[in-house]
Design a protein that fits this description.
- Helix content is 68%, strand content 0%.
- With 431 residues, it is an all-alpha fold.
- It has a domain at 115-260 and 379-392 and 401-426.
- Helix 5 packs antiparallel against helix 17 (403-426) and helix 9 (211-229) packs antiparallel against helix 10.
- The longest helix has 30 residues, at 343-372.
- The protein is globular.
């Protein structure tokens, strides 16, 4: 960790001198060092700690380049929070991993007999998601993909409670991957049915004009494939990203987000910066600046109320007591509302909240990493894929105080229990 601390200190120094390119390069180099340290040691490109280090620190380095006029120099407390989040996560992961590793049980063999449960679970989830989407389209009277001239059509396309089921379609492709990899004797008919279900699940985010949900579902499927199959090659991630680029462009056009509109919001210093650089840059970089706005402008902490938003949302308490969710969002610009993983942790308890949350995430990551090694129910691999994706997008939003995240976990858990019950009822012969 000495190399990281030296590079981080250098990044802070260069930023204070307004040498932003040097600052960004130092932090990005630190991210690469941390990731490859875990990768070379484990030979696992999806090592949870390595992914968190790569994307949390790497995103910070990209932000340090300061390519937008919206970006300002960070306060010292912001720098310390970012540093503490990484250090506490890294150390807690290391300590728990060693403790669990010492007392770990013998690795279990992969259980057989999950095929029927997986097959029916995929069909059930697809049917529920399609029905929820259809209900929203009928009640609201439109489908976002076919609406023109309304940049935020998708933002209004939701019925409270129902939309959670609609967006759960992102889990179907990863479940299909599990079935295809673990069941070697699928009939042609079942393969066709599962293929159709997967296409329906992928069509829903396209029709919703949700680029994020489409990216989420495809990347989650790739991560799950890498976990279940054991073929862990980084090139699969690049291949998935390559196939998503044309779809991303089409959905951007469908959302009426043209170059003029986006450049007007992002305010890049170089007005000639291509939009395919500007848009992903701001989706990564501006989130750290939003965190800095929070640090500089927050008058009082919410003592856990902000982070418990999933409870208020999923129980409906937010409608009974709106004050539970009536907290301002501190951002550089009204339209740019994405934030980092630790935004709500700081909102609730300040730097102490960031450290506690980072520690809990490190413990969870270490435990999950050991649990998937025991194999058993294949849905543990889907859980791992979700965790990996959340760490890869740690720069994007407050995943664990987002009700959709917990709804995905609940749906995955329900599917895991379902296939386990079906397996035990069937009592297949283990081979």
């Amino acid at each position: 960790m000495l190399a990281y601390m030296i590079l981080y200190g250098a990044g802070m120094f260069f930023a204070s001198c307004a040498h932003y390119y040097m600052s960004g390069c130092c932090i990005i180099l630190a991210a690469c060092y941390l990731y490859f340290r875990d990768y070379l040691k484990s030979r696992n490109p999806l090592h949870l700690r390595g992914l968190f280090c790569a994307f949390w620190v790497g995103g910070q380095g990209i932000s340090c380049l300061k390519l937008s006029r919206l970006q300002t120099n960070w306060s010292l407390e912001t720098w310390v929070c970012f540093f503490a989040a990484l250090m506490v996560f890294w150390i807690s992961y290391e300590c728990v991993s060693k403790k669990i590793g010492t007392n770990s049980k013998t690795v279990e063999e992969q259980d057989l007999g999950y095929g029927l449960g997986l097959f029916t679970a995929i069909l059930l989830l697809t049917a529920v998601c399609a029905a929820a989407f259809t209900l929203e389209a009928v009640v609201l009277g439109y489908i976002p993909f076919f609406v023109r001239g309304v940049p935020h059509a998708y933002s209004y396309f939701h019925i409270s409670g129902v939309h959670y089921f609609t967006v759960s379609c992102v889990l179907v492709p990863s479940m299909s991957v599990v079935l295809f990899v673990t069941e070697k004797k699928l009939s042609i008919g079942k393969k066709i049915v599962i293929g159709i279900a997967t296409l329906i699940a992928l069509a829903i985010p396209v029709l919703c004009v949700s680029r994020f949900q489409l990216i989420f579902s495809v990347i989650l499927a790739v991560l799950t494939f890498m976990q279940v199959s054991g073929v862990k090659k980084i090139r699969y991630l690049f291949m998935a990203a390559g196939t998503l680029i044309p779809l991303y462009v089409i959905l951007t056009i469908a959302r009426s987000h043209d170059v003029t509109y986006l450049n007007g919001i992002f305010e890049m210093k170089n007005g000639n910066t291509p939009i395919f650089i500007t848009q992903p840059y701001m989706y990564i970089a501006n989130n750290y600046d939003n965190f800095n706005c929070l640090v500089e402008q927050l008058s009082e902490h919410t003592l856990g109320i902000k982070g418990l938003f999933p409870l208020w949302a999923l129980t409906g308490l937010k409608f009974i007591k709106p004050e539970l969710v009536a907290f301002p969002l501190y951002t550089t610009k009204e339209e740019l509302t994405t934030v980092t993983l630790f935004y709500d942790a700081y909102y609730d308890f300040g730097m102490i909240g960031v450290c506690i949350f980072a520690g809990l995430l490190g413990i969870f990551a270490a435990w999950l990493s050991k649990r998937v090694e025991k194999r058993g129910n294949p849905f543990w691999q889907v859980f791992y894929g979700q965790a990996a994706l959340y760490f890869m997008l740690s720069f994007f939003t407050t995943w664990y105080s987002n009700p959709t995240t917990w709804f995905y976990f609940a749906a995955t858990g329900a599917a895991a229990v379902y296939v386990e019950i079906i397996r035990r009822v069937q009592k297949p012969k283990l081979s």
